[in-house]
Amino acid sequence: MAYRAVAIKRWPGMVAAALVAAIVLGTLLAVTLRAEAGRGLGPSEWAAIRFTILQAVISAAISVALAVPVARALARRRFFGRRILITLLGAPFILPVIVAVMGLLAVFGRSGVLNVALRWLGLPEMQVYGFHGVVLAHVFFNLPLASRLILQGWQDIPAERFRLAAQLGFGPRDIWRVLERPMLRRVLPGAAAVIFAICLSSFAVALTLGGGPKATTVELAIYQAFRFDFDLGRAALLSCVQILLVGTAALLALRLSGRDSFGAGMDRQLQRWDAQSRALRVTDAACIMLAALFLVLPIGLVLAKGLPGLPQLPVTVWRAAGVSLIVALVSTVLMLVFALPMAVAAAAGRGRLEAAGLLGIAASPLVIGTGLFIVIHPIADPFAFAFPVTAVVNAIMALPFALRIMVPAVRDTVQSYGQLSATLNLSGITWLRLVLIPRIRGTLGFACGLTAAMSMGDLGVIALFADPEHATLPLQMYRLMGAYQLQAAAGAAVLLLVLSFGLFWLMDKGGRGHAEA
Amino acid sequence: MKYLSIAAGLFAATTAVADTPVLTVYTYDSFVSDWGPGPAVEKAFEETCACDLKFVGADDGAALLARVKLEGARTDADIVLGLDTNLTAAARETGLFADHAVSANYAFPLGWNDAQFVPFDWGIFAFVKNADLDAPTDFKALGASDLKIVIQDPRSSTPGLGLLMWVKTAYGDEAQSVWEGLADNIVTVTKGWSESYGMFIEGEADMVLSYTTSPAYHLIAEEDASKDAVKFSEGHYMQIEVAGKLKSTDQDALADQFLAFMVSDAFQSIIPTTNWMYPAVTPADGLPKGFETLVVPDKGLLVASDKVPALREEALAEWLTALSQ
User: Fold this and answer.
1) Which pTM was predicted?
2) Distance (Å, whole) CA A116 – CA A105
3) Which of A514, B151, B264, B306 could form an SS bridge with B209, CB 3.0 to 4.6 Å?
4) What sign does the CA torsion over A374, A377, A380, A381 have?
5) Closest approach of chain A CAs to the CA of B301, in angstroms?
6) pLDDT tens for residues A267-288?
7) Which residues pair with B122 in a beta bridge?
8) A387 to B11: CB separation less than 8 angstroms, yes or no
């Protein structure tokens, strides 16, 4: 592989990865050192670990499996509203958990639209609570992300390959064998690993839709260890289990996924000659419509329910919205500072660096937050650090997604343009500016949009640090709910949704610019 | 991480040190929210104390205690307000809390005798329903019915823990079989009170575990009489919320002054329509109009705080077994 010869510096990426690892593992260590003798892991913790793995594996597998036809349909078809639909697909992922759960229940719950329809038709009702409910919710959250990651894979196949395939008279089956299957082999393991990692740290969603303590996850066990037992040792131990699981999944995925790219194209407009048959058109249309309905309906109901609450929002909510916006933008910048060098180093051969990035989601935010609290408290007032800490933690949480999105594109650029860049003696910032960033603009925008939106919607560590004047929008929303202000809380949810989505849309669009993605 | 410290400096600058003494009170989030008692309490106390009362919010009572434990003797807090009797044993064990000298004529049954903690309000756990629903009046009948309820997880929520102790106190060794009876009535278990109350309002369940005072909110704030609570014949478990002074306080006299203020009319009359709980000491003007419509249980149940930790362990194991089958 010739790309190793390219003069790409890996050390900035190694430094960034080391810094991330230091924050995640350092906070874990801080918690462990602060711990008093606890009772270790009992049978209920082991049951939680088994349940967590099982639901995460199944949720990841189903999300990815369903995402393939959706992504293929979106890759093959051009239709009015396609771009908006692709952007909308990002919405569930960036919703705050409680909003998403309420949206899902408005569709699938006991008095949701689905059961109302079933009753009207005289059919038996559907029960959403249970293991299948957990999987349903996780698929709702992650199907869009999986679809976007896989769609990205399709778009990374240069248009010239499809042109050549058409000239050689390839049918859909040949295209699948020669182009699509190798591409999926490259993309699927990574996508599945990221989704596995997200589902692993699920807590409120799993508990609420799982219908009770059967659906206890590791994250809930950590929460309990902190809150009610104050057993920091057990919390740290459980966090290690999470990290171990995510680490194993990440290494497995990296090993399974093929690395070779399809080479560079001329960035021509993509044309597909292979999928014109009527049957394929109908299948693709059905896939797109079903996915859109499944994803957009709950969000639409959240919007409809919350709009009347918007005028009731007190000024504190608007102020919190401003705070959240700033935190989101700072997180996005921080994410880029970490992710760009790491993606370059990972693309230039240090594939395992991406595993370091995954640490961000593997570690429980509660553990990171508490660890930072323990570290900061002796030197300074943790409240003074509420926003910077939230921004840093949000950036680290978004890192795995950003890397998964960016690494394949960076690798393609390095493989395809590395030698030319070396010939021209391009390196460092100049290479970044002239070669890399223009080539990965689309993925960069998507990664930034995702980070900003996730940061907007995250309750995370701010709850540990916030005092009354310093609250983010999700925190204010919870406070509204806690004070019986359900209508206003629904309004705040709409505001949150609009702002998150607006940020996501702006950045994602800014990144796409010229591309058709 | 240079800009981190710059940002921190900026934030620090906005909280410039004033020359008036500052009393720092850690409390739970909903206490300090705009709709909670916090703003009114702050105003009332600052009128009398020539000081700056600063509230700091944590998620809920359990988070509050975890936070104080984490900070230990170096904590900035002078007062911790918002623990309940299920948490006081663990709080006492930290050795961080000082004795108080407050006495008052408390409104709740069973009396009060605690050297470190002073009650500021109390509530009664109950299932809340729509007023037109005919509901069973004890746990066994509820278990035999086909009504759907939504409750909170005792591992993450204080009302959830309250329900656990309620069933345990009412039924003792029979508690597990009562839970087994309830298993098919429980739609789901949520992380906190907000989620389950939201689900109930959206029609996901017939009843939700909340407080007898919840219907008062709908009645007084929304002029909506469509919700009420069910009176259970076993009696109802109570939640007494307390505050305590930290030994490490640098505002000893001011902290004592706050605790005394806390049981006075000025503080107590704020509680009913902001925290939607009963005031610990009934104010001279009585309770707000609307509170007379609330369900009053025949018997109040409460486990002595030092018995809570062991009983919780046992009850939690039974709960997990009964609901995991």
Assistant:
1) 0.84
2) 12
3) B151
4) positive
5) 22
6) 666 677 666 778 888 888 888 8
7) B240, B278
8) yes
